[in-house]
Amino acid sequence: MRDEDIAVVEEMECVFSRPEALTDKAFHYCPGCTHGIVHRLVAEMIDEFKLMDRTVGVCPVGCSVLMYDYFECDMIEASHGRAPAVATAVKRTDPNRFVFTYQGDGDLASIGMAETVHAAARGDRITIFFINNGIYGMTGGQMAPTTLIGQRATTSPSGRDERLTGAPIGICELLSSLKGVAYLARVPLTSPKNLKDARKHMRKAIRAQLEDKGLGLVEFLSTCPVQWKMEPIAAMKHIDENVVKVFPPGVFVDCVGDLQK
Amino acid sequence: MEKVHVEVNRCKGCGLCVEFCPRHCLELAAELNAIGYHPARNHDAEKCTSCALCADMCPEGAITIHRKKRSKSA
Ligand SMILES: Cc1ncc(C[n+]2csc(CCOP(=O)(O)OP(=O)(O)O)c2C)c(N)n1
Ligand code: SF4
Ligand code: SF4
Ligand code: SF4
Predict the structure, then answer these.
(1) What is the pLDDT of residues A40-69, one digit of tens each?
(2) Which residue spans within chain A are E strands per DSSP?
(3) A155-159, B17-21, B40-44, B68-72: which has the minimum mean pLDDT?
(4) How far apart are CA A59 and CA A81, in angstroms?
(5) CA-to-CA distance for A31 and A224, rounded, in angstroms?
(6) Is A192 within 8 Å of B53 when comparing Cβ atoms?
(7) Sorting pLDDT into bands at 50, 70 and 90, what band is A7?
(8) CATH class name, domain B4-65
(9) 8 Å CB contact of B71 and A7
(10) Whose alpha carbon is nearest atom 8 of ligand 2?
């Protein structure tokens, strides 16, 4: 084709807008908090897989406790840490549903650890979106099982001491030994390139459920600028420089495979 | 129509879009929006390529991106 054949017409097309699965309501999160990014990615996936009519989301307790206000699909509020148990019940009662949970590290890795591990061990066909920001955001910045050694929190004011409180728990490392897990990956939310990887992982964690393979989980290395007492951009740099050393990104389990082209 | 539309009163002035714009054409305005933040705005639409990286990093879903449609004509 010759260049002269292409006339650039001043007509505009929309290439990026809010996903349909999000309501219009403004998020209540602090400026720069990555909860908002993951909300949008989850909504994009519901749109992309055309799952709106059959999705049930299960909300956690934590900063994202009100997330049911932000999604157009059906949502249930679970008590603290119990989202995988609630999701299991929904999925087993109505297997045609797409069921996801959205949980922070206090919710999933602390009070809800038993529910997390047993849902994974049973291989329940649910998809878990795990927000690891290394702290309890909602309640004022207490130490989480994922808090880094030396990191200050209101309950570790001089920095987390391994002798006293143990070392951070890597959820992906822990769950990767369980046969019921069909997809498991960890990704930092620190650049457009990483968000692209996040979408790839989310697609597979969703397919793990839709193709009846097992439980899918994506861990997002997230920021909590307010409780970390950092500017949003510095918080992302902190993940890239420090958090990834303790929680290395990557795919831990993949029984889903690639789609045929 | 603007390439980058920031929904001013959804923006919390976090600066992530400014940081991740590869063409450096975003800035935070000096004035405050209705919810008390300095909203982002595109100060150099000429340089903007409608790549949407800013919108991708926005935690508020506040940015909509349009680009010129390239259409073939005889
Ligand atoms: C049974 C019960 N125990 C304790 C709490 C208090 N609580 C509310 S949120 C929270 C931790 C939230 O941290 P995380 O899951 O990391 O989410 P974030 O707020 O960081 O997004 C705790 C302990 C509660 N609501 N219910
Ligand atoms: S406290 Fe932390 S996790 Fe909670 S909304 Fe604020 S920045 Fe986000
Ligand atoms: S669309 Fe791309 S070039 Fe334009 S303001 Fe956003 S990041 Fe910058
Ligand atoms: S990323 Fe979004 S909320 Fe943050 S300054 Fe830019 S438009 Fe505003």
Answers:
(1) 999 999 999 999 999 999 999 999 999 999
(2) 6-16, 55-59, 74-77, 98-104, 127-132, 135-136, 142-143, 181-188, 215-221, 250-254
(3) B68-72
(4) 10
(5) 10
(6) yes
(7) low
(8) alpha beta
(9) yes
(10) A33
Residue bearing the CA closest to ligand 3, atom 1: B50
Alpha-carbon distance B49 to B64, whole Å? 13
Q: What is the pLDDT of residue A147?
A: 98
**What is the DSSP code (8-state) at residue B37?**
S
How many separate domains does chain A show? Answer: 1
Q: Give A48 Cα–ligand 1 centroid separation in angstroms.
A: 31
pTM of the model: 0.96
* Residue A8 pLDDT > 60: no
Q: Is residue A12 part of a domain?
A: no
Tell me which chain A residues have a C-beta less than 8 angstroms from the C-beta of B42: none
Band the pLDDT of A176: cuts 50, 70, 90. very high
Answer whether A152's CB lies under 8 Å from A94's CB.
no
Read off the CATH number of the domain in which A242 is found: 3.40.50.970
- Domain of A152 in residue numbering reads as 19-254
**3-class DSSP string for A164-209:** HHCCCCCHHHHHCCCCCEEEEEEEECCCHHHHHHHHHHHHHHHHHH
Q: In the predicted model, what is the mean pLDDT of chain A?
A: 96
Name the one residue in this structure whose structure tokens are 């297997």: A95
Residue A7 lies in a domain: no
Reduce the DSSP state of residue B65 to 3 states and report it. Answer: strand
Domain ranges in chain B? 4-65
